[in-house]
Amino acid sequence: MTRRNLRIQLFKLLFRVEFNQPEEMPEQMALFFDTEETIDEAAQAEIQEKYEAIEGKLSELDRMLNEKATGWTTARMGKVDLAILRLALYEILYDDKVPASVAINEAVEIAKKFGQDESPSFINGILAKFVN
């Protein structure tokens, strides 16, 4: 599985956070992996590990997004955009294996596929504030 496909699967899992209680997420994760036949065991382990790392920092990531997103709060953001921003911001700040420029580019590409028309520029603008 390519790095982009791993990110897309992780984005889909993070998207579920907005619609489920924290205690429901283990069951949601199991359902997610049961329905995604293209994910092998190695990819599943990597996705689960990264999801858990991001999930542990959600409040911190949201706080930082709220500080930098002028005129926006995470409560007002679209759920797709928010899931993409959380993933990319985690990669920028905490994943030494992912250069910030790659995290931003990948976030914009995911936004083009899953977001609204203005999502790519919105995401690019917010994430750029974390690297400038």
Distance between the termini: 32 Å
Q: Element order, helices and strands? A: HHHHHHH
- From the alpha-carbon coordinates, what is the Rg to the nearest angstrom? 14 Å
> What is the CATH homologous superfamily assignment?
NusB-like
Task: List the main descriptive attributes of the protein structure presented here.
132 residues, mainly alpha
Structure description:
The chain is mainly α and 132 residues long. It has a single domain, classed as Orthogonal Bundle (N-utilizing Substance Protein B Homolog, Chain A), CATH 1.10.940.10. The protein has helices at 3-15, 25-35, 41-55, 58-68, 79-94, 100-114, 119-131. Helix 1 (3-15) crosses helix 3, helix 4 packs across helix 5 and helix 5 (79-94) runs antiparallel to helix 6 (100-114). The longest helix has 16 residues, at 79-94. It is globular and about 40 Å long. The N and C termini lie far apart (32 Å).
Concise synopsis of the structure shown:
The chain has 132 residues and is mainly alpha-helical. The protein has seven helices and no strands.
